[in-house]
Write a structure and sequence with these properties.
11 strands; 11 helices; globular; 13% strand; alpha/beta; 5-stranded parallel sheet; 302 residues; 31% helix; Dimethylsulfoxide Reductase, domain 2; single chain
């Protein structure tokens, strides 16, 4: 969890995907009811089943099992198309402005560098353009066609509401309403929290599910604020405690162990990708074939 259980009471919007907190975490769900009662928060539940959480939701959106990434891809497209992002936050605390090497690309469901025989990627083209001091080149205007923001915008343009409805089975009117409510939390005075459990973490694409929602939260400026965050709900107290341990180690670079594509959003404090201040990484994290790695890249070389 990036925030505490009690902090959920500060949320303006609670989104539950990949979990059923009302039934599986009834004591913790108290803080959702606190947010609804005292903060006039709304609750969105996206789930294949009509659960106990859905029964008390302001909006329930049905979804086909396993199609979460497409649903979130449509949400990202909605945010970018309608300019519903928190610009100052994105520029200051993510890698959206970083310029990606010209060799990086995406076509037919695969990123550049794919080796069909090895079924793996050569990631040498996935890093950033560097200046003379070894820092990533940036474009604060976010207009450079090779900056992460523009690459991400192009990547997610395919996830239209019609496409998402076809893939996910979610009624278009309900999914658009959910996206609009979520988009409202891009305002600096509003916050959304994401609550998920084993419906995401134990999924075959669990890492991508969680990272894609983290990208949404970063675009909205909902990481590191009261009532925001990515909050994993566990089944045992010791595992919940291990999850929450990250709250006490904010300075640790947890991203140094892996990689992601350069048009994706994930946690990074590496000096190779930061220009004198911590930033977060935005990547095109989709469920396209075998094109994604569940880890994070944060350096200038492979």
């Amino acid at each position: 969890m990036t925030n505490t259980w009690a902090d959920i009471k500060n949320s303006n919007l609670v989104v539950i995907m990949g979990g059923n907190a009302a039934e599986a975490h009834p004591c913790g769900f108290k803080w959702v009811t606190e947010a609804k009662a005292h903060n006039k928060a709304k609750l969105i539940v996206v789930d294949p089943r009509f659960t106990r959480s859905a029964a008390v939701a302001d909006l329930y959106v049905p979804i086909r099992a396993g199609s979460d990434i497409a649903w979130l891809g449509g949400l990202i497209n909605h945010l970018l198309t309608n300019d519903k992002i928190q610009h100052e936050y994105v520029k200051a605390y993510t890698n959206a402005a970083f310029i990606v090497k010209a060799g990086f690309g995406f076509s037919d469901g695969l990123f550049t560098g794919y080796d069909a025989q090895k079924r793996d990627y050569d990631r040498s083209s996935w890093s950033y353009e560097l200046d003379d001091d070894g820092y990533a080149k940036i474009d604060e205007t976010l207009q450079d066609p090779r900056c992460v923001f523009q690459l991400m915008k192009t990547h997610y343009a395919r996830y239209t509401a019609e496409m998402v409805e076809r893939i996910c089975g979610s009624p278009k009117d309900k999914l658009v309403q959910a996206w609009q409510w979520i988009a409202e939390t891009s305002a600096p005075d509003r916050a959304m929290t994401s609550m998920y459990a084993l419906g995401w973490t134990q999924h075959s694409k669990g890492s991508q599910n969680i990272r894609t929602m983290a990208m949404v939260q970063l675009l909205l400026g909902n990481i590191g604020v009261a009532g925001g965050g990515m909050n994993a709900l566990r089944g045992h107290s010791n595992i919940q405690g291990l999850t929450d341990l990250g709250l006490s180690r904010c300075g640790r670079d947890s991203s140094a162990t892996g990689r992601t594509t350069p048009n994706s959003l994930s946690a990074s404090r590496s000096p190779c990708t930061a220009r004198k201040r911590p930033r977060t990484t935005i990547s095109a994290t989709t469920g396209c074939q075998s094109s994604m790695s569940p880890t994070t890249y944060c350096g200038p070389s492979s």
